[in-house]
Structures are given as structure tokens and as C-alpha cells.
Amino acid sequence: MALFAALTALTAPALAMRVSPMVVEMETRGTNATARIEVQNINPGNLAFETRVFRMEIDAEGTITETPADEDFLMFPPQGILPAGGRQVVRLQWLGAAEPDTSQAYYVSVEQLPVQLEPGAADAIGAQVQVLYNMRALVVVAPPGAKPDVKATVVEPTFFRPPPLPGAAEEPPMVEGLAITLTNEGRRHAMMANFTWQLVGTDTEGNFLRVDISPDELNRAIGTGYVPAQGSRIFRVAVPGFGPGPIKLSFKQ
């Protein structure tokens, strides 16, 4: 999950708050139509925050389109002020349709607000500045009883450029790997990084080749591996060595 910083200052703690969990799965009816997110202040001063909700649409390449959707949830409290080390549980209640056709994905954004500086603080250190942080939790709401149905529809060798590391001055070099298209025909989303991916095929000389990618490795490479209900995602993973022949991908719990 991304951590976004809105810079309005020169210096600040490395982090101001912690939000957990970062991934929440809910249902549209029953006890699972409510959930909790905890906000913790790890700043030495007070932390003021507010919550907002955005509907998330994600295409096959992972491009996200966001739409404000505060009306789909009851959030309590929607804002607050935490002392140093303080914690606040924010409760989510689904207010949308009881029987949607498919899962719906959202970001719950916890946005740090500017706080009043202590009298004399600016004079003591010169121009006082603040860094405001915005942390987001992925919230997915599914119809009760809906299930995913994910298949690997394309698995082929490729070269690709991984995303740059935070703060990196240069783009990373191209790497050899696989482009994998996962298609979900079910009514429920899928988090495919929860599985071990087993790839079976042949190497460039025609010899048998099998590679297993663990959930830990997948989380580092592709995050949650979120595939929307009745949608597709293309994931690129740095697994070199496969030849042009057929490559079979299966998922192991």
C-alpha cells in the first residue's frame, strides 16, 4: 500500500502515523459489513487526521482511477486528534447496495492535517515546517457467497523495467522475466499473492524447468496481487530462464 507525503516543510519525522490493517476485506451484509482500522500516532507531537473514501477502478496494467465515495460508508469517527503514542479505532459500516453484482474496491485514506504550532516554536528554530502524510488502506467489499475464479490466460517470456525504488535517482535496468495475465471470471475479487505460484515449462534449451514463487516473494514483487471481479491484471515477475514453449501456471495454497 502506498504512503504519500505532501511536503509543506523542510524537516519532519520519518513517519507521523501508522495505519493497520492495510488490507480489509468486507461483505455487503451480515457481521462482515463492518470493519475496523486503527490509526496510531508515532509522532512526538499531536496528530490531527481525517478519513476519506475513494472508489477504485484498476485496469489490466494496474492503472488506478479514483472517485470520491464517502457516501458508501459510515466512518466513525471521521476525524480526530491523537496525542503522542495515541491510538484511535475508526469503524467502517457499509452503506452501499446489499446485493452488488461484483466486489467493489475502495481506498480509505487517512490524511494528516496541519496542527497549530506551539507558541514560540517557530521563533526557536526559524521557519517552522511540517510534512503531512496520507496513508491508504485497501478496502474490498464483496457480495456474501461470491467466489473468485482466476485462471492464467497468458504466460510468456518478456523483458521489463521494474518500478524504481523510492528515492532512486535513476531508472532500474531492464530485467528478464515473465508477463502473466490473470483473468478472474468470478463475482469476488482475488488476492493472488496469498498463494504459491508454480510455473512449469522448458528452458531456452528445451529442458524441463519448474519455478515456485512464494507468497513472501510475490508480496515484494506485486503487492497483494489484486485481481478485480470479472476483470484481468497483467503481472510482470523477474523469473528468467524460460524458453518460448508453453508455460503452465498453477496456484498452491
Describe the structure in brief:
With 253 residues, the chain is mainly β. The chain has two helices and 19 strands.
Verbal overview:
It is a single chain. This protein has 253 residues and is mainly beta. The protein is 5% helix and 51% strand. The longest helix has 8 residues. A hairpin with a 5-residue loop joins strand 15 and strand 16. It has two domains: 140 residues, Immunoglobulin-like (Sandwich), CATH 2.60.40.10; 103 residues. The N terminus is likely disordered. Strands 1, 3, 5, 6, 8, 10 and 11 form a seven-stranded mixed beta sheet that branches. It starts with a strand and ends with a strand. It is globular, with a radius of gyration of 22 Å.
Features:
mainly beta; globular; 2 helices; Immunoglobulin-like; 51% strand; disordered N terminus; 253 residues
In percent terms, what proportion of residues is strand? over 45%
CATH topology of the largest domain: Immunoglobulin-like
> How many beta-strand elements?
19
Classify the helix fraction into a percent range.
under 10%
Output the radius of gyration. Answer: 22 Å
Q: What is the number of domains?
A: 2
Average pLDDT figure:
89
In CATH, the architecture of the largest domain is Sandwich
Uncertain residue segments: 1-14, 121-127
Q: Can you summarize the main beta sheet?
A: 7 strands, mixed
The helix tally amounts to: 2
The named CATH superfamily of the largest domain:
Immunoglobulins
Secondary structure: elements and pairs:
Layout: E1 3-8, E2 17-20, E3 23-27, E4 34-41, E5 47-58, E6 64-68, E7 73-76, E8 79-82, E9 87-94, E10 104-113, H1 121-125, E11 130-142, E12 150-160, E13 175-184, E14 190-191, E15 196-202, E16 208-213, H2 215-222, E17 226-227, E18 231-237, E19 248-252
Parallel strand pairs: 3-11
Antiparallel strand pairs: 1-11, 2-4, 4-9, 5-6, 5-8, 5-10, 7-9, 10-11, 12-13, 13-18, 14-17, 15-16, 15-19
